[in-house]
Design brief:
4% strand; 62% helix; elongated
């Protein structure tokens, strides 16, 4: 078919060149955004007297009919068209005639695609935010249910000190909370309208860019037309935020995979989120957690691709920027799907509190509290540290926990021990005494859960 730019050319584009240049295969996702932007542009043109009321009415009705027919499956978006902009404009002209040819007045495909991408990213930010909100709601429910579920806390993958499952899950709540805050920041920063920037130098038509921006829900128009058509910072920021979300999911998945092993047995993943082996009948594999962990690389790849594409581009628009879509779309789809699957897996997962508590006891996570007990009896901390270290070696040789030792055995290492040592090193005491803000003690965690609940109920990505 004839191209929108065909007047300058005397020969048809080679088919291979046309196919290589065309973007309809992937930018057809923009059909809603393209029509939304065109409706606003036409409304502004009519307000400015560039279109008559009748022409404006015809264009609006024509665009509405195209949107309706696409969504009802009556109108197919095909490779006959170079891009989604050509598809919409060609079908509009076919339906309403010459009035449709006036829609592109004062507009370039450069500012048109910049607008479409911004509208699409803005919608995707909202969709990802909703998925994160659902995940955070599930996390907070589990936190409230597990204030007294003891487990070992780790450093260097070595058992360190006793915490609770609520406290451990709360760390991930903070990560995903920051992810939502990042999305809000990105949306606020990107919410300026590029439409009316033209190809790079604006236009001589008396456009009302403030009005167009208002119609499309932007905070105002962009202030430099060259930057407007060549800016993809907001997309790179969004991909960076998606990469961080995936990194947080991947870390959580790594722990779940570890906890799900026979050696740990802290959790059991629901059958609906597990798979078996084709040869080993006993296997129940954490495939969903592994796939989320693996798909993190795809999202990282999209971010690196976009950074690499943009790094050498002179102002203003360059065709390289057409590469801003395919991997970005995949990253958005991947992240939303991973959050949803992870939330379902987490919500249906069964925890084993007795196993977790036993692991904490036999991992000597109460050793620091035993040393603190001696300090409370007047033993210098460095001496107390050495005494407890020798006791741990003794317990390892006997294959027992500190809690299993008799008082006589305790006193072999220090006469400062008395009956109070057993209460001092119980998991309940070790955890309950940690009451500072951010600590795992139940009272501290209740206050934290209340604060998180209030934040979850009041945080809105659209708030200024």
């Amino acid at each position: 078919m004839a191209q929108l730019w065909g007047g300058r050319f005397t020969r048809q584009t080679d088919q291979l060149v046309y196919d290589f240049n065309a973007s309809i295969r992937f930018d057809q996702r923009f059909y809603k955004q393209d029509i939304e932007g065109s409706r606003a542009h036409a409304k502004m043109l009519e307000k400015q007297g560039i279109l008559t009321q009748e022409e404006g009415r015809q264009i609006q009705e024509g665009l509405d009919s195209i949107l309706r027919d696409v969504e009802e499956g009556k109108l197919k978006i095909t490779s006959e068209y170079e891009d989604i902009h050509s598809f919409v404009e060609a079908n509009l002209i076919r339906r309403i005639g010459d009035a449709g040819k006036k829609l592109h007045t004062g507009r370039s495909r450069n500012d048109q695609v910049a607008l479409d991408m911004k509208l699409y990213v803005r919608d995707e930010i909202a969709a990802v935010d909703e998925e994160l909100k659902s995940l955070l709601t599930t996390l907070l429910t589990l936190m409230k249910e597990n204030l007294h579920t003891f487990m070992p806390g780790f450093t260097h993958l070595q058992k360190a000190q006793p915490v609770t499952l609520a406290h451990h899950l709360g760390a991930y709540f903070e990560m995903f909370k920051r992810d939502r805050q990042r999305l809000k920041d990105i949306r606020k920063r990107m919410n300026l309208c590029p439409l009316g920037s033209g190809a790079l130098a604006g236009t001589t038509y008396p456009l009302d860019r403030e009005y167009t921006a208002c119609l499309l829900g932007f905070d105002g128009p962009t202030l430099n037309s060259m930057d407007s058509v060549s800016d993809r910072d907001y997309l790179i920021e969004f991909l960076s935020a998606l990469a961080m979300i995936m990194m947080h999911l991947s870390r959580f998945c790594e722990e779940i995979i570890t906890w799900n092993t026979n050696e740990y047995h802290f959790v059991e993943i629901d059958d609906a989120y597990s798979t078996g082996s084709s040869i080993m009948p006993q296997k129940k594999n954490p495939d969903i957690a592994e796939l989320v962990r693996g798909k993190t690389g795809r999202v990282y790849g999209a971010l690196m691709q976009m950074l690499t594409t943009m790094k050498g581009l002179p102002l203003a628009y360059n065709k390289d920027m057409q590469e801003d879509k395919e991997l970005a779309f995949d990253a958005m789809d991947t992240t939303k799907g991973c959050i949803a699957l992870f939330e379902g897996m987490l919500r249906t997962m069964k925890f084993h509190p007795d196993v977790m508590a036993g692991s904490a006891v036999h991992g000597f996570t109460n050793a620091t509290d035993a040393a603190d007990y001696l300090v409370g009896k007047g033993v210098p901390f460095r001496d107390a540290h050495g005494i407890i270290g020798r006791m741990v070696l003794y317990c390892l040789d006997k294959n027992c926990a500190l809690d299993d030792l008799s008082l006589d055995e305790f006193r072999k290492f220090s006469p400062a021990f008395d009956e109070g040592i057993y209460d001092a090193i119980s998991l309940k005491t070790c955890v309950d005494r940690r009451l500072t803000i951010g600590a795992p003690g139940p009272e501290a965690m209740r206050r934290a859960c209340d604060a998180e609940q209030e934040w979850l109920e009041t945080f809105n990505i659209l708030d200024k």
